[in-house]
Structure formats: structure tokens, C-alpha cells
């Protein structure tokens, strides 16, 4: 009995010591700390109320090294690609454009049920695909046929898929343009917007755990970014520090809805810049 009482007394005195220690710590912290440092906040303390007005901030800067007329604006940024690579890039961009015209007309003539063109976005597909390793995994939306073309998907394979014939890799089970190729590390397109995004974060997390040195690229339109899935994907990838590139194709429209009807700010980029919400490198 005496033993138990002694033990309680000892515990009580320890708790008291701890409490006075904590009080001392918090008093010094209140006196000296300039930043809040507790779970969920690392913000600086200010003593005047100041509303942050996002309209006063500049939009996200756009990286550009070549003028519309093809002149280099910043010589130091020239990647100095070899002629063979540049020619392949150019050929693939023009081939994609021609394929689009034929398949778009096929759809208009009623030969295939559906088609999505890539007009004007060819450079984004080929440029980004060329920068990746062929083993890196691609999660696309539906307007990234150029990435697949760069990796070696043949014209006949595009046709087989759009026509849903016997030679189609998906055996005609998918709508046209919902390509996929395990061989080329290109995950089959889903019609439901943004569902590829959390899947891509999950795949990137698996890569991180496997430490295989590969990364994931996830393409999405600025319209798809309004889906809740997009935010789940961003947060998941940022918190778990996943090797992933989120590639937003901001073409100004979600089919017929202009960005100004969808965002108050500067499109999807403003989420990152104005709130630094996901702590991504933009
Ligand atoms: C969950 C979901 N909602 C709506 C649609 C219908 N839909 C198909 S494409 C599209 C617009 C997507 O716009 P964006 O992401 O900007 O891609 P873009 O067509 O401009 O390349 C919509 C709303 C869909 N496929 N899935
Ligand atoms: Mg769009």
C-alpha cells in the first residue's frame, strides 16, 4: 500500500515538473516565435488584419522560349536537340494532325461513332512525351493521342481502335479514342472525367515504394480539374510526395464551357499559386 502511495506521489511530482516545463516553453515561444508552428499551420504571426486579395496578384508566369514566329527568345534555354529527334517530333505532329482530319471526317460521315481531335495541341503531346522515359507510365484524358504516337502506336492500331474491329487491342469494348497499350505503358482512357487522376497518384506512390526510378504523367483538361477527383489526386500525391507530373492542358474550354464560367481565378494554376494549397512545384 505504502509502495503504491509512494509511486503515485512520484508520478504526481513528475507531472507537475512536466507541466511547469511546458508552461515555461510556451511562454518563451509566445515571446520569441514569429511563426505559428503546430499541426496544420506554419504561418507567420501578424498583428494587423490584412485581407489577401487574390485579384491583386499576377497570374502564373508562362514559360516560353520561342516566339510565335519561331525565333528563340532565350538562347540559354535551347535544349539543342539533335536533328533526328527534331525531325521525328515534327513528323509526329503533322501525322497526328492528318490522322485527326481523316478520323474526324470518318465520324462526320457516320463511319465511326465518336471522335476527339487534338488540333492545336500537338506540340504539348509530342514535347512532353519526348521528355519522358518510355517506361514512365501515362494516364491520359482523351486528347493525348500524340503521346501514344510518339511512343510508337501505329496508324493501323489507331484505326483498329476507333473502328472497334477484331484487331483492336481492347476488342471493340471501348468507345473510339479510348486507347490503351500495356506495351507502351499507356493506361486505357476512361470516359468519366478525372477518374485517371487518383489512379495516377496511386500508381506513382507504388513507383515510389518500389524505388524503380520511374515516374507517372497524368494529363487532364482544365475542365476535368473541377471534379473532386482532381483534388483528391493532388492532395494524395503532394502529401505522399509521389513521383508524378500533373500535366494540365488548358485550352480555355470544357467542350463549350469557357474557363471564365468555371473559374474565378487564373484557371487551375491559381489554386496552386494563390493558396500554395498542395505545395507542388508549378
Ligand atoms: C464525370 C464526367 N462529367 C462530365 C463528362 C462530360 N464531358 C466530356 S468532356 C467534357 C469537358 C472536359 O473539358 P476539359 O477537361 O477542359 O478537356 P478538353 O475537352 O478541353 O480537352 C465533359 C464535361 C464526363 N465525360 N465525365
Ligand atoms: Mg479544356
Automatic annotation (TrEMBL):
Keyword Protein transport belongs to the record: no
Cofactor entry: thiamine diphosphate
Dehydrogenase E1 component domain: residues covered: 91-266
Catalytic reaction(s) noted: N(6)-[(R)-lipoyl]-L-lysyl-[protein] + 3-methyl-2-oxobutanoate + H(+) = N(6)-[(R)-S(8)-2-methylpropanoyldihydrolipoyl]-L-lysyl-[protein] + CO2
Keywords: Oxidoreductase, Thiamine pyrophosphate, Transit peptide
Top-level taxon of the source organism: Eukaryota
Keyword rRNA-binding in annotation: no
EC id: 1.2.4.4
General function of this protein: The branched-chain alpha-keto dehydrogenase complex catalyzes the overall conversion of alpha-keto acids to acyl-CoA and CO(2). It contains multiple copies of three enzymatic components: branched-chain alpha-keto acid decarboxylase (E1), lipoamide acyltransferase (E2) and lipoamide dehydrogenase (E3).
Family: Belongs to the BCKDHA family.
UniProt-recorded name of the protein: 2-oxoisovalerate dehydrogenase subunit alpha
Organism: Tegillarca granosa
Lineage of the species this protein comes from: Eukaryota, Metazoa, Spiralia, Lophotrochozoa, Mollusca
